[in-house]
Amino acid sequence: MTPRPVLIDHDVETPLPDGTILRSTVYRPADGEPCPVLLTRTPYGRDLAVNSAYLNPATVAAAGYVVILQDCRGRFGSGGTFDPSVNEACDGASTVEWAARLPYSNGAVGMWGRSYFAETQWRAASRRPAGLAALAPGISAGANANNGSLYRGGAFELGSRLTWGHASIAANELLREFPDDPELRAKEMESWLDLDRSFSDATAFGTLPLRDLSPRLGTFMRRHVLPSAGETPGSGFTRVWDAASAAPVDMPTLHIGGWFDIFAPSTLAQYRMQLEHSRANPAAAPRLIIGPWTHTNFSGVYPEVSFGLNAAAGVMNGLGDLSGLQTAWFDAVLKGDPDGLRKVPPVLLYVMGENRWHGFEELPAPSRQRSWFLGAGGSLGDVPGAAGRESYAYDPLDPVPTAGGATMIHGSVPAGPAHQQAVEARDDVLTFTTAPFDAPVTIFGEVSATFFAASSAVDTDFVVRLCRVTPDGTSLGLADGIIRASWRDSYAGNGLWEPGHEPSPIAPGNPYEYTVSLWQTAYTFAPGERLRVQITSSCHPRWDRNLNTGKLAYDSAETIVARQSVLFGEGHPSRLTVGIL
User: Fold this and answer.
1) In contact, 1 and 57? CB cutoff 8 Å
2) d(CA 419, CA 478)
3) Distance CA 483, CA 451 (A)
4) What is the pLDDT of residues 109-140, one digit of tens each?
5) Can you give the pTM of this predicted structure?
6) Cβ atoms of 4 and 66 closer than 8 Å
7) What is the pLDDT of residue 410?
8) Which helix (H) or strand (E) holds 331?
9) What is the distance between the alpha carbons of residues 452 and 507, in angstroms, rounded to a whole number?
10) Fewer CB atoms inside 10 Å of the end CB: C or N, the chain?
11) What value does the CA radius of gyration of the chain take, rounded to a whole number of Å?
């Protein structure tokens, strides 16, 4: 199809029922012929260049769409006050109905976008606005506030939450807060820059208690972000967060995610929810794309490993880039033209290690499960060995530094797979390693660890990490998780949050059974490579430190050193369990 000339309209106003004005940039075919609308709503600035890298509004509009990028209430060009999540359902539904009535709209509206943009899709859809016909949520939050978005295994997602508020929201908020006082605004901006330097070099995260950061923070951070460090799983805000995608929608959905994204579990959960919902309505069957990507990096290239050019969102087996694939999908569901999707499988997954995309009709289940058991001398075997234990001391004032993982920490702690040699050289990190594989082994789907441990403290943390070890001894982190001992009952069984359990201290010296979810992965170990399990008690600043006293790092600066012991053998079958594809 020949691309159509495109007009760009700036500061297009959407009046809301309460009188608030939201503003958008609109890309539309110049001929004025009515087209489907593709709408996204963002708190990060509608003209941010990263939006175009994900879905290029100019080329998509030239393919016969009206593409609308709107600032959320209280952000950049839009009026009102920004209150995260609270207004997105009503504002989004009103905007959808407004967009469907535009003179150059044919009445059909699809929504697209990643992260918070995805949340605005789910919330708008919950109101069933007239005209909304399709959703394409990418790296989507919702449904996992207690499993990694806000808290993980009972620990607070310190690095991601604080730097999200600081890097993504706070600067524009302070500019809006002091519009008529340039001198005060300049002073506040200098404070923001000072804080930015200490987030960038990670020194700000060393503050104890964490609430002492408050004087250095702007109004938004003090009101909406820092207090969550003093709360716990199951709080009121976690319920607001999870409500975003609590119910399926009666329309087709396209889900895009990354194995190293902090919202990977919710992306997969939302896909599964829509898949089950579609059993009675096959026309609304969802599609899924999962790459070796993080929350912000869609290249498949990291400082210490590259999964190849084919891993990038612009290649993908030559099927096109994400912008083009989303356009082809919208062509199918909004225009009734499936030609662009004929070569694209409904589920497209990148298997790392093997470094290839695989296509499926539905997200497959592993063919079987396999467990490796912790043993003496750092061994990891197919059956429990002799009874024993390995011990280490955990000092909250000398935490294990974060090295990669499914994070979104601004500054000096990049997300993704990362070398673990410096971590594993520490005295407070245990490692258990298999013999070299003699044939390829593809780990796929859920990864979990069940282990038995004792501590000298009344509360403490345990971090478990899955690593690949190459023949030359290089250890690469692939997946990890954490459990806070006092929250063990809430995460028992499969390592995922279950409401109805109150936190409780542990008895010093007594062994307890713990379960940690390491989320999902897809990785093929080559012959000669080995699988390794790390166990330690911190990963800072990814998660807030456990002080070993029973008090939160938000409230206290008092710490004690804990003596930790991990038990193994027939009576304490500590193990890692994975799916095998």
Assistant:
1) no
2) 10
3) 11
4) 999 999 999 999 999 999 999 999 999 999 99
5) 0.96
6) no
7) 84
8) helix 322-334
9) 14
10) N
11) 24
Could you identify the residue written with the tokens 């207690």?
146
Enumerate the H helices of 201-249 as residue ranges. Answer: 219-220, 236-242
Q: Report pLDDT digits (tens) over 25-50.
A: 999 999 999 999 999 999 999 998 77
Q: Which two tokens stand for residue 119?
A: 């949340």
d(CA 57, CA 60): 5
- Residue 493's nearest CA partner among 466, 513, 473 is 513
Tokens 């691309």 — which residue? 3
What tens digit of pLDDT does each residue of 276-315 get?
Answer: 999 988 778 899 999 999 999 999 999 999 999 999 998 9
Does residue 244 contact residue 141 with C-beta atoms inside 8 Å? yes
Please write down the long-range contacts of 193-201, taking CB distance under 8 Å and 24 or more positions apart: 195/166, 196/166, 196/167, 199/162, 199/163, 199/166, 199/167, 199/410, 199/411, 200/410, 200/411, 200/412, 201/411, 201/412
DSSP single-letter state for residue 427: T
Q: What is the pLDDT of residue 181?
A: 87
DSSP secondary structure letters along 109-161 = EEEEEETHHHHHHHHHHHT--TTEEEEEEES--SS-TTBTTSEETTEE-HHHH
530-536 and 430-433: which strand pairing? antiparallel
Give every CB contact of residue 426 below 8 A, 6+ residues apart in sequence: 400, 536
Model pLDDT, residue 51: 76
Tokens 């029973």 sit on residue: 550
Written as one letter, the residue type at 148 is G
Q: Cα(262)–Cα(283) distance, rounded to whole angstroms?
A: 30
Distance CA 369, CA 330 (A): 37
Cα-to-chain-centroid distance, residue 112: 17
- H helix or E strand, kind and range, residue 421: helix 421-424
Token pair, residue 6, equals 């495109």
Q: What is the Cα–Cα distance from 155 to 151, expressed in whole angstroms? A: 5
Mean pLDDT (whole number) for 368-388: 97
Provide the 3-class DSSP secondary structure of residue 103: coil
Q: How confident is the model at residue 413 (pLDDT cuts 50, 70, 90)?
A: confident
Nearest to 358 by CA among 290, 420, 280, 274: 290
109-113-117 Cα angle (round to 5): 100
Provide the token pair at 106: 């044919």
For residue 243, what are the CA distances in angstroms to 120, 161, 251, 327, 494? 12, 19, 18, 28, 22
CB atoms within 10 A of CB 425: 8
pLDDT: is 200 or 472 the higher one? 472
